[in-house]
Design brief:
4 domains, Tail-specific_protease, serine-type peptidase activity, about 525 residues, Pdz3 Domain, alpha+beta, globular
């Protein structure tokens, strides 16, 4: 059966309802409802919470008890069935929507003042001329500086309904009087395609950091632009991509796979199978594609890699992926919280499940990276553990394996340089962000005037800046030794990449980081061999 809709049985819905019962009257369910009163075990949980609420000698936050109870139930199911509390649900949902409504700035709170790091590309603030370094002092006449105000409260002031207006008073260095900006709130994109540019004359590059509601649209725009620039091949970077919406991954796989070829199928508890086939002529069915994966590529990322590998399309390059072959459905619990419940397993076109085992509990499951690291898998292809009983063949006879992630066609080892890994952690963990922001603040007018094309030659990272960064780390109690002379060029590169990020966005940032990247170098080598 063709189609993209997953099958949900009434039994699975009943499970969600049973979990919801634990929350009892706090979720406004009618306790006389036959569905919730017929089962004595459900009544027991409901009564216990009521007893604690009304009879226990001390005041107890039963909301926290409920949260613990729900989490404990889900822990006994599988590692990916999770509870999303009310206070986190809005943030999680917003991140996956691909946009939010607001004025579109990222900011720091510095000395009780809101300072703009960057106006988000495509958002209302960028369009109206707000820049990095601007201090937002008033919003609709409300004072936002020298106030004991949380970031959540600030965000509330700046966000709002679509097309509502907010008047900002802004202090900009070099200008005596406050600037007034009348901004109409609008949709601000949260892009999931972090970068898109040409690696060579023929080879385009697209990096996707997660699969949100807008990923396929962003991807389509990126691939169309790359084709205009002459791209005959695509390097699709899914490294460190944890997954997201399955439908978006399917749409992207469809761009490379010919019509009527199987992309994946899912199987639920009752054994019902839902197959999904390529349905349209894709943008790149006749071009070559390289899919970049690593040990942190999971779920929807593995759907794309597995679909292409099993259809003998393209080349998978990197290291074995995470190994998540479970499908979740998000179910609201009535009080603003939700549960993300596993409702099916997915299988690649050859019929393999790439879900790694979780029989030994969640702790063992999530520590799998350390196991791979210790057994040498990240550095040596021969150390990858495979299960010969889970061997499959693609239509062209290539052997692939199930039971734990996608094994790449071309293996590229992880860099074992521990100091480089520490510097990468500092960059990806945001520790360079505040330091570079302070550097830019020292001469904001100059940095904001730099043209993107002149940036590479004009901005040079000095030894003095490297020394200042070492001092900065010690000041925030990051216990790392001073940067060695051997690694100083790498640190300079990372600091420059962070400047590019704050001035020009993620595309410029990723371009800097990808220089001398082992996996990308391998893809370029493979591309050149096929010319």
């Amino acid at each position: 059966m063709k189609g993209k809709n997953k099958i949900y049985t009434p039994l699975l819905l009943s499970i969600a309802c049973a979990i919801g019962l634990i929350l009892g009257a706090r979720l406004n369910f009618d306790p006389t409802d036959e569905l919730f009163t017929a089962n004595p075990k459900k009544q027991k949980l409901n009564r216990l919470i009521d007893y604690i609420d009304y009879e226990y000698v001390d005041d107890v936050n039963t909301d926290s008890i409920v949260d613990v109870t729900v989490n404990k139930i889900l822990e006994n199911l599988d590692p990916h069935s999770v509870y999303i509390p009310k206070d986190e649900y809005a943030r999680v949902t917003e991140n996956m929507k691909g946009d939010f409504v607001g004025i579109g700035v990222s900011f720091y709170k510095i000395q009780d003042t809101i300072v703009v790091i960057k106006a988000i590309e495509g958002g209302p603030s960028e369009k109206i001329g707000i820049r990095g370094g601007d201090r937002i002092l008033y919003a609709n006449g409300k004072k936002l500086f020298n106030q004991d105000i949380s970031e959540d409260s600030i965000t509330t002031q700046l966000k709002g309904k679509v097309n509502t207006k907010v008047t900002l008073k802004v202090l900009r260095k070099g200008i005596k009087d406050l600037l007034t900006f009348n901004i109409k709130r609008g949709k601000v994109p949260l892009k999931s395609v972090n970068a898109s540019y040409m690696l060579t004359e023929d080879l385009g590059y697209i990096k996707i950091d997660r699969f949100s509601e807008t990923t396929y649209r962003e991807f389509s725009e990126a691939i169309s632009e790359l084709k205009k620039k002459g791209a005959k091949e695509i390097a699709l970077d899914l490294r460190d991509n944890p997954g997201g919406y399955l439908s978006e991954a399917i749409n992207i796989a469809d761009e490379f796979i010919k019509d009527d070829k199987l992309i994946l199928f899912t199987k639920n508890k009752s054994g019902a199978i839902e197959e999904t086939y390529a349905q349209r002529e894709g943008e790149f069915e006749n071009g070559r594609v390289y899919v970049l994966i690593n040990e942190n590529s999971a779920s929807a990322s593995e759907v794309v890699a597995g679909a292409l590998q099993d259809n003998d399309v393209g080349t998978i390059v990197g290291r074995r992926s995470y190994g998540k072959g479970l499908v979740q459905r998000e179910m609201e619990l009535g009080d603003g919280s939700a549960v993300r419940l596993t409702i099916a397993r997915y299988y690649t076109p050859t019929g393999r499940s790439i879900q790694k085992p979780y029989d030994n509990g969640n702790e063992s499951y999530f520590n799998d990276y350390m196991r791979r690291y210790k057994n040498g898998e990240l550095n040596n292809e021969d150390s990858i553990e495979i299960n010969d009983s889970l061997k499959y063949r693609t239509p062209k006879g290539k052997i692939v394996y199930g039971g734990g992630g996608i094994i790449p066609d071309i293996f590229v080892p992880k860099d074992t340089d521990s100091e480089k890994e520490k510097l990468t952690f500092l960059l990806r963990g945001g520790y360079m962000r505040q330091f570079i922001f302070n550097v830019l603040e020292e001469n904001r007018e100059y940095y904001n005037s730099i043209d993107r094309e002149d940036f590479r030659e004009e901005i040079q990272i000095t030894d003095e800046m490297v020394d200042d960064f070492d001092l900065y780390l010690r000041g925030i109690n990051i216990g790392l030794k001073r940067t060695s002379e051997t690694h100083k060029p790498l640190l300079k590169k990372y600091l420059k990449a962070e400047i590019a990020q704050q001035l020009f966005g993620t595309n410029a940032f990723e371009r800097f980081l990808n220089e001398d990247d082992r996996i990308i170098e391998k893809v370029i080598e493979l591309s050149n061999e096929k010319q």
